Amino acid sequence: MTVIDETHVAELLRVKDGRIYHREGQELEFKESFNFAGLAEYLRDFAAFANNRGGYMVFGVTDSPRRARGLSANARDMFDRIDLARISGFLIDLFSPEIRWEQMIVHVGGKPFGVFYIHKAAQKPIIARKDEGKDQLIKSGEIYYRYGGRTQKIQFAELESIISHRIRRNNEDWLGLMERIGRVGPSRAAVLDTESALLGRQDSQVLVVDEALAEKLQFVREGQFDQINGEPTLKLVGDVVPVDRVEVVRREKEHLTKAYPLSAMEVVTAVKKALPQAKQNEIWEAIKENELKGDSDYSAYVFRNKKQEDAYEETGILPAGLPCIYNQSAVDFLIRVLRA
Question: CA-CA distance, 319 to 253, in Å (whole number)?
Fold first, then answer.
């Protein structure tokens, strides 16, 4: 099922005074037409969006001025003929790790628009594996990033932020794992390999299967096999090792203020300390333009209760006056932006 929100796409294409109201940005790119000759450019943008916060590419919008014209019949036909499996395979061959994306035709004002939605990468950075495109538009080893309304090679500050975030997440995962092992005791702990579906405990390995399938399986020992047509069986080479309990744990956000120790005013104070000439309204504007609020690399919303958070996850609408807290990376980013 696609995650593309047609209502949100209609908002992105909202017209004011004959022109599209929204500008291109870190999460939005407009294209006038779609054709397969531009595929390398599109996929380069895919990687850039995935390395930032994900975003939309909308086809059918003219340039200078921005007008919602819709796709021509020929461009619509080419967009409809996109082979999802083929392009996904092309992306896997071209970039690593995986880029997740969605595609659909959305009608707004009776006109068809082609829409790609690119997910924020779960594991960053996305790196080009080989050269591709005219004049090597994509080059092996390069990392692309979405800056404002453009795609370009990643700069030092953003790459450093991605690497630091990856290290921090890895450390947090290890600390969380050690904490859980400490609670249950190492003798009762087991490690689940999600790729091979094997559960390791002490010197034993256990195959993890779906509960519905497990109820149907019959184990037979080697040398004691009697074939019964239609009955699912597994050949038992070793022993089935009982496990007391396997828990699937959803890791909650813990110690939010430890990860994001700064209030909004403390961010302003820290930035002005480094840049005395910076004005408070300029800092607020930089936070807004670069969409730092709610970006987990820089900040987190402070919900008043679980009900409020659940409502936001369901509707995507933030409660009025919801505060945000920030980390040092946000301060460093703002200093770089305002200094430039």
Answer: 20
CATH superfamily, domain 6-154, is Schlafen, AAA domain (3.30.950.30)
**pLDDT score at 124:** 92
List beta partners, residue 108: 111
Q: How far is CA 289 from CA 101, 151, 286, in A?
A: 25, 17, 5
What is the three-class DSSP state of 268? helix
DSSP class per residue in 170-213:
HHHHHHHHHHHHHHH-TTT--EEETTTTEEEETTEEEE---HHH
Domain ranges of the chain: 6-154, 190-236, 255-339
Q: Which residues pair with 219 in a beta bridge?
A: 234
**The two three-digit tokens of residue 332, written as one number:** 């460093």
Q: Is 144 helix (H, G, I), strand (E, B) or coil?
A: strand
Across 182-186, 207-211, 268-272, least confident range: 207-211
CB 124 within 8 A of CB 170: no
pLDDT in tens, 81-123: 998 888 888 899 999 999 999 999 999 999 999 999 999 998 8
Question: How far apart (Å, rounded) are the C-alpha atoms in residues 281 and 290?
Answer: 14
State mean pLDDT over 54-60: 95
- The whole-number average pLDDT for the span 145-153 is 91
Show the tokens assigned to 237. Answer: 């080479």
Taking each helix axis from N to C terminus, what angle separates 280-289 and 328-339, rounded to the nearest 10 degrees?
100
Q: Where on the phi/psi map is residue 136: left (φ > 0), alpha (ψ -120 to 50), or beta?
A: left
Strands (E), 19-100: 19-20, 28-31, 55-59, 95-96
- Is 116:3 a contact under the CB 8 Å cutoff? no
What does the pLDDT average to over 236-244? 50
Q: Interhelix angle for 84-94 vs 39-51, to 10°?
A: 70
Cβ contact 128:94 at 8 Å? yes
User: Taking the complete model, does pTM exceed 0.90, yes or no?
Assistant: no
